[in-house]
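May I ask you to comment on the folded chain given beneath this request?
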Amino acid sequence: MPDQDPSTDQTHFGYRNVAADEKAGLVRGVFDSVATKYDLMNDLMSAGLHRLWKRFTIDDAAVRPGHVVLDLAGGTGDLARAFAGKVGREGHVVLADINHAMLQQGRRRLVDAGVAGNLSIAQVDAENLPFADATFDRVTMAFGLRNVTNKERALASIHRVLKPGGKALVLEFSKPYEMLQPAYDVYSFKVLPALGRLVAGDADSYQYLAESIRMHPDQETLLEMFRAAGFERCRYHNMTGGVVALHTAYRL
């Protein structure tokens, strides 16, 4: 299912239909609201599992000294920090996000961790990446693609900025195994908004989170979107019963 209907110029924001040019601003409002509690909420919502999902992604990226890495929707910098330690002085990491408040949190955390010299920060739109063709050895995106207005355009932009032989990795919530779905629905629509209200003072943003996951393409659909964008060797790996999937693909 395409994220944006070209015949009506409409898209979805959670379960709501909105004008396509309004979605980015609505998503920005969500992350402006939750930025300061984002890491704490991730730990609470996933019982710490998000760290294992990200560690698997980092390992699968197989980043080496000298690589140039773009971490899209990198937010508070979990992946970027790990990659900066792997590319060494010869390489470089770009922590990128469309949301300024999230980048501020990421900058603080990276400064506190002493990461400097081989990392830069950029506020960018994943649909229109302001980088030259064939710039990056790796492009990663963890829990950000579902918030993009036009996912097809973002995947094409990622493909363009990858070097030949470069690898894209998209970690995202996906469709869990059928046996898990009832319990997952209760957790998503009852527990998450309650946690958001209690910890972040914002139930609505976490209601949007649950809805946005349901509107995101499932594993096989997203795999076909990668192929349509020109990627090769496309595959995915389910984690935690399909609650999360890592899609990987190459520009050849």
Notes: The first strand starts at residue 4 and ends at 5. Strands lie at 4-5, 10-13, 16-19, 68-72, 92-97, 119-123, 136-142, 162-173, 232-239, 244-250.
